[in-house]
């Protein structure tokens, strides 16, 4: 009797890259622009993390989310927009101000946004307020 053939090779299981591979902050280097606070989550519930995205190119906050969401889905993450606002970024003076809100997503927790920004912009003075302008 011939020995049983070896089992077929199993397909490697695809895991999302570590969340650390996704940058905390992607914002414009200068100016005043809309931003959103996004929660990334593994579909299996194995962890979550918040990231900040902002750009002058976005006319509305949802334009930012419509760009970020498919990028993160390709990496295997689920996204939820936690809210938005504006960032005033003055790179010359190394200052940022986080303020305002998103009509569609509501106001992000600006204190959370500031803590994330401080990790990337360690030598900046970063403040926030509930001011609309």
Task: Explain this structure.
This protein has 133 residues and is α/β, with parallel strands linked by helices. Helices cover 19% and strands 32% of the residues. Strand 2 and strand 3 form a beta hairpin. The N and C termini lie far apart (82 Å). The chain contains two helices and six strands, in the order βββαββαβ.
- CA radius of gyration: 20 Å
The CA-CA distance between the termini, in Å, is 82 Å
Helical coverage, percent range: 10-25%
The helix-and-strand class reads alpha/beta
Let me know the number of strands. 6
What best-fitting shape do the alpha-carbon axes yield?
A: elongated
SSE order, as H and E?
Answer: EEEHEEHE
H/I helix tally: 2
For the largest beta sheet, what order do the strands appear in spatially?
Answer: 1-3-2-4-5-6
| pLDDT < 50 runs, ≥5 residues | none
Summarize the structure.
With 133 residues, this protein is of the alpha/beta class. The chain has helices at 61-74, 110-120, and strands spanning 25-26, 31-41, 48-55, 78-90, 95-99, 125-128. The longest helix has 14 residues, at 61-74.
Topology:
Elements: E1 25-26, E2 31-41, E3 48-55, H1 61-74, E4 78-90, E5 95-99, H2 110-120, E6 125-128
Parallel strand pairs: 1-3, 5-6
Antiparallel strand pairs: 2-3, 2-4, 4-5
